Amino acid sequence: MPVLWLMIAVLLLATAGYVAGRHRALASAGNDPRDLHSLPSYYGSHVFIMTAVPAFIFMMIWLLTQPLVIENRISGVIPETAISEDTTRSLVMADVRRVAEGLNLAVEQGAMTQEEASTVRAEFTDIRQRLGEVGVALGTNVEPFVLRAAQQYRELSASLSTWMTLTVAGLAIVGCGIGLVRSRKDFRARNVVEAAILALLMLASTIAILTTLGIILSMLFETRNFFQQYPWHDFFFGLTWSPSFSGRGGASQLGIVPLLWGTLYISFIALLVAVPIGLFAAIYMSEYASPSVRAVAKPLIEILAGIPTIVYGLFALITVGPLLRDYFAQPMGLGESASSVMTAGIVMGIMLIPFVSSLSDDIINAVPQAMRDGSLGLGATQSETIKQVIVPAALPGIVGAILLAASRAIGETMIVVLGAGAAAKLDLNPFEAMTTVTVKIVSQLTGDTDFASAETLVAFALGLTLFVITLGLNVLALYIVRKYREQYE
Amino acid sequence: MTDASIPGAAPEAQKSSLLVKDAHTKKRNAAEARFRMYGLAAVCTGILALVLLLTSILSNGLSSFQQTFIVLEVELPSEKLDKTGNRDRAEMAKVSTFGYQPLIADAMERKMSERGIALEGLSAKDAAGLISKEAPAQLRNFVLANPDVLDTTQTFEFLASGRVDGYYKGRVTMQTAELDKNISPDQLQLADLLLEEGTLETRFNWRFFTAPDASGQRPEAAGLGVAILGSFYMMLVVLCLALPIGVATSIYLEEFAPKNRLTDLIEVNISNLAAVPSIVFGILGLAIFINFAGLPQSAPIVGGLVLTLMTLPTIIISTRASLKSVPPSIRDAALGIGASKMQSVFHHVLPLAAPGILTGTIIGLAQALGETAPLLLIGMVAFVREYPSAPPEGFFDPASALPVQIYNWTQRSDPAFVERASGAIIVLLAFLLVMNAIAILLRRKFERRW
């Protein structure tokens, strides 16, 4: 790992720079720290930053662009004729990369000399067998042009790596030197170091923006690719979902409607379970329960929020599903399947109980005590106060909480993967297995995926739809909650 | 209600007394009691659901910590295992596990005749069927590791097959064995005889925590070793990235950021990221880290990066809360004696907020540990038997993760894997419990009221 060693070397140099810078500054003030502009350690830190930061930033940019440059140069070497009908340039490039890695491995293990690896000819040597010996299994025999491209790939990446090492080392040394020269007693080291730290803090806080940008751009880009292969109106209004991985081309029908139906149906049942239970639990705990009951019951219910969704999924799969099938679906003749809308909905509802209850609890507690006192003073019972004063006052906040819970339900994955089934259906029977957007994202993107086919790319369009729906719900909910909160503050 | 206001009602009002409840009051009181009961019922339903969930997992999973073993003395003849006789490992490796299978059958037969156990209609092959299909591989690995044991008789502890194991855990009965092509009632009777005689025993199963995953035919050998290691690596990555980035972001937003458009944008982004479905982060990881940046699939580094992005909002929110709870007088005092703004934050505010930050980080890590969906998309579902090597190279090796391993086991047909999956969940919940307990303890111990 040359990169790792390079990093360690730069860090060592920077540490040495720290010590030297501190010393130099102190010496320039005649070893009297009072004559320095800043504390001695700031002079050290200044040299450290000057050494490490430019070098690391440069290294990061180089490492990110190097693959692109190599890819571009090598892909020009591959002759047009080599790209026949059943392969694409990216597939050939993948072969080239594999062969290049195989050659590297062979050199590393001593099965080939460095020279042999760069001069070996596919016409005379069985590369596939030679690489097989070192544990690199290749699917087909290596074409001469692939081998030549792979050899160039190796040369190019080796020379680029050397250049990078030299430049990074040079930057570190120059930075260290400049830092040391500047380490005099009148130099405002603290201001420089603090400015650098502030820049670092700002950089860290932009990661949130970058993440959102990454999510949106990556999905938009792939979704555009998808809509180039598959008409958008068929996707948004199509009533059947039947992707075919065997028959590529027009055989797949990728309509989102049945998936959305399943998603909304399951979320609806989940809310039907979670909202009454969560709301009543919140009301009981904030208005009726004694402090000791509250101290026990509230954390117990909140444990439900800390349990990973895979646990709920397994609960649906091995307990709730068979229970519903044996005691409800089969006796009533409604279905034979253990995984059903009902199973996933109920279990998801349980998951959402603490979500609804703790949000509503906060909101109910925010209703001013004067309103309660006024109502009770007029002779209303406690339940009348709750029903006619507190709940109406807290209603916007409660609606916000329910919308947040709905957005959670729509985006939930593991419970529906294990509890809802995989059949895309437009059906009203809640004991029938149906499927959701998230389940299909998982099933289209796991296993061997080919990022050129519409069947894989559809997952990005599904993801984008999901992202837009949940984002809309969240923004709406936050808006309502925020507006409500201002009312009483 | 005074008599004066409603003159006609005076005689009626005399009839009603404060001490006797009229029908309307009774109705109102009944409604009150009912409403209160609804609330109590809701709380009880919530707790009941928790109890049901935990009981279901515990009752299914606790048995996975027990395993049935069979102890046998196996002869290791060199004429079969090392035909050239020069103890060369490369030569010996040519004998596949099929070459070791008969040795186990022989050992079983010898054991039975020695102890005088005989069952009609049960061949030596059937008797050897009690032992896991993993056993020949175990034998082979042992021999290849220590070639000098050839031509001696060694005592081995083999796993019993999944069905025999299930028989002692109540999953397999004589009735189900009738219909099962992997086990017969005769074999189960033999197992009972071996149990009486002490060759077969059921005891605590350390292998469950250390062994790697095993194929669908040998649930008895499947363990969580690779998954626990993979999860640990991912948590390391998350800790090393999310904590510094999260704390830096919070300090900037809470202490330095001017109130402007950019700051607003960052704040809105953070609160939205906290609510984005986890699977979307998986899509991001697949598109950016794997397809664009070219990082390997199934690698802990990719999982760690994705989980870092997911945990960041949690850490940022809790860090900001604890920075906010440090009273301004501390900052003012530091500034008053000549510290710079940066010094007041890093020397005074941050140390005082550290317990809260730590608590938030642990809770964020616990969340990340249980997350499954995004890991499915970045290829962590692959069947991985090799332990990843030590960091930093290990971060790029394929590995599994605890929750993904659970998902993987639920997708297999053998019912023994349901037990394994539930057992793995107990392990996962135990980790989460410990992490949350540490967080609560830290909060109790270091929390300061100003």
Would you mind describing this structure in some detail?
- The complex is a heterodimer of chains A (489) and B (450).
- Helices cover 75% and strands 1% of the residues of chain A.
- With 489 residues, chain A is mostly helical.
- A two-stranded antiparallel sheet of chain A has the order 1-2.
- In chain A, helix 10 (257-288) packs antiparallel against helix 15 (382-411).
- The longest helix of chain A has 39 residues, at 144-182.
- The two termini of chain A are 58 Å apart.
- A three-stranded antiparallel β-sheet of chain B has the order 2-1-3.
- In chain B, helix 12 (225-256) packs parallel to helix 15 (300-324), helix 15 (300-324) packs across helix 17 and helix 16 packs antiparallel against helix 17.
Sum this structure up briefly.
The complex is a heterodimer of chains A (489) and B (450). Chain A is mainly α and 489 residues long. Chain A has helices spanning 2-28, 40-77, 89-109, 114-119, 127-133, 144-182, 189-205, 207-229, 232-237, 257-288, 291-306, 309-329, 341-366, 369-377, 382-411, 414-419, 437-445, 454-488; strands at 241-242, 253-254.
What attributes does this structure have?
heterodimer; A: 489 residues; mainly alpha; two-stranded antiparallel ribbon; 18 helices; 2 strands; B: 450 residues; three-stranded antiparallel beta sheet; 3 strands
Q: What helical percentage do the residues of chain A reach?
A: over 70%
Shape of chain B: flat
Query: How much is the average pLDDT of chain B?
Result: 85
Neighbour order of strands in the largest sheet of chain B:
2-1-3
Largest sheet of chain B, described in full? 3 strands, antiparallel
Using the CA coordinates, give the radius of gyration of chain A.
Answer: 32 Å
Biggest interface, CB < 8 A: A-B, 92 and 88 residues
Class from secondary-structure proportions of chain B: mainly alpha
Cα Rg of chain B: 32 Å
* SS strand fraction of chain A: under 5%
